[in-house]
Amino acid sequence: MHSDAKADWDARIAIRSDEDREFAFPDLDPPKEVSAVGGVGQVTINWSPVPGAVGYLILRGPEDGPLEPVDHHSGDVLSVPAPPYVDTTCTPGTPYRYAVASVPEVTVAGRASDVVGAVPLLADGSVPVVRVEVDAHAEGVELPRPWVPMVGSERLSQLLCTDLSGGREIGPELEQALRRMHDEIGVRTVRAHAIFHDDTRVYTEVDGEPVYDFTVVDAIYDKLLGLGLRPVVELGFMPRDLASDPSKTVFEYGAIISPPHSFERWGELIRALVQHLIDRYGLDEVLGWDFEVWNEANLEVFWSGTKAEWMRLYDVSAAAVKSVDPRLAVGGPSSAAAGWVDDLLAHAASVGSPVDFVTTHTYGSPPLDVRASLERHGFGDARILWTEWGVTPTHFNPINDSVFSGIFLLRGMKSAAGRVDALAYWVASDHFEELGRPPRLLHGGFGLQTVGGLPKPRFHAMSLLSRLGPVQLPVAAEGDGAGSLVETWASRDRDRVAVLLWNLTLDQTKADGDPALTRTVELSVPGVDAGWAATATYLTPNGSGDLAAAAAELGVGDWPTDEQWTQLAAHSTLKSERLARDGEAVRLTLTMPSAVLVEFRPV
After folding, report:
1. Catalytic residue among 296, 433, 487, 599
2. CA–CA distance from 127 to each of 29, 130, 220, 516, 541 (Å)?
3. pLDDT tens digit string along 377-391?
4. Which residues are 48's β-sheet partners?
5. The pTM of the whole model exceeds 0.85
6. Are the CB atoms for 84 and 484 separated by under 8 Å?
7. How many of the other CB atoms lie within 10 Å of CB of 95?
């Protein structure tokens, strides 16, 4: 162990606290049983989980030199929720030292573990083998589906928009995209911004007195409920006539981000809205809705007031919702980068405000395990809703259209399974205009589907997840990168065993692939009848499900021609093939990134 480097890290990451923080973080133990094992093109780091940690920060240094956080270039939170971690940002053949720091809250890193060494291996021309065995006869457990409860969307007033984008009418296409999320993927609720934006005409002041008009809100929610979906009602942004400073705005459409000029009138607006929704849709229906206070107030771009003013906004909003019926669900902080979770919980505990659920966001990493924060502050029964999540926080980023982003979705959903109540991918459709309307078909938009409704690799990933059966089966894996680079999610239903496998690193510098990370997978499912057929459905770069590759092959410009729209629809589907079975096993080659769903069925 290099104690000097460890001491240097411990000094530099001493617990950070804001001046207005009124709570202390626990002094968590460093992780124990830390190991680092070099494989071809990668190092897998493992450790024992630490009670009270929401996540872990992976540290790396050369043989001589300081430890620094491993940056997998997500552009957001680098902490991960659980072991193992696969580091592919390393240089093969170079010795490294690794340590792991417990994270009690996203802005705070604790003491580092002991330091361990590893050397990522150079490729020798052979492809490493990962052996996976699925116990098809196990009793199993119910397979969690964190993608089902929620998906994100552009502001829902766009459901009523008749403008064209890319030659397509916005409202009907956004409606169809949401319908597809419900009908094909099974999504139940939609979270979106700006129900109080002035295009909904909810609030005005006439002769100094408030006037409410919920006509547009009714039209929006009528459409949504007609699709079989419920809204997550994000209470924001600020109506112009209620804003203390209407000049403070965000987005191309000018959402107002200032505190209200009257917190009393803000509370009255919330109460009026909730009561109206119950009058229109019935108490039994609205009791199934969630009311979320604001969006990412921990970023100045979304809240021009202070943290204390936002906490007051939360208190007033929560009290207004509960005044209509105490069983209605309210929560927050709807924060960027998993911030302010502990701040809200500590504040709510001190003043007695309700928190029925916690909401927060992150990009580029699996969601952290904020259950530790809830239990620490006495809100252990609250639900956990990640109301925004994705591969990158950056709009117009090409990675949004890539196969890498689809495999990232698989990794994050598997990580979240069983420990969060919802993981909402941001967003359903490229009909999304926070930074302006789409300039071309493939522009790096946040959508799971394009303008025109073509499925991107991320939508295909959702589709593969939706084909898993109801019973989760245990899996054993061994080999170079097993469980870290190559992951498996296995399931069973009455007459089928479905096994989803993928190969992925979080390292976004490898988004276009790395031949050294290719793995051969030997999949065996003992007990599956030898007469059952095995079929593989692929999601691969430059192949099955890669819309960007299909568009390039067809020579699509900014927008497809009428003929190219039809061709793209045919080219962007997932492809399947019958697999040969070598006894009980099937052999598959998984490049990084790629995924395959293997289904065993009676012939």
Report:
1. 296
2. 39, 10, 53, 8, 18
3. 999 999 999 999 999
4. 32
5. yes
6. yes
7. 12
Note the pLDDT tens digit of each residue in 51-83: 999 999 999 999 888 999 999 999 999 999 999
**Higher-pLDDT residue of 171, 5:** 171
Tell me how far apart the alpha carbons of residues 428 and 153 are, in angstroms, rounded to a whole number.
5
Contacts for 11 with CB less than 8 Å, ≥ 6 apart: none
Residue 1 has a pLDDT of: 35
Q: How far apart are the first and last CA of the chain?
A: 57
CA distances (Å), origin 413, targets 409, 546, 580: 6, 20, 29
Tokens of 406: 């689809």
Catalytic hit among 234, 292, 388, 433: 388
Distance between CA 181 and CA 458 in Å, rounded? 12
388 annotated active-site: yes
Q: Is 584 a known active-site residue?
A: no
Between the alpha carbon of residue 319 and those of residues 110, 115, 288, 325, the distances in Å are: 36, 49, 18, 10
- Which two structure tokens, joined as six digits, stand for 170? 């916005």
Is pLDDT at 13 greater than 70 in this prediction?
no
Q: Comparing C-alpha atoms, which of 234, 245, 583 is closest to residue 426?
A: 234
What letter does residue 100 receive in the DSSP assignment?
A: E
- Partnered with residue 491 across adjacent β-strands are 472, 498
Length of the chain: 603
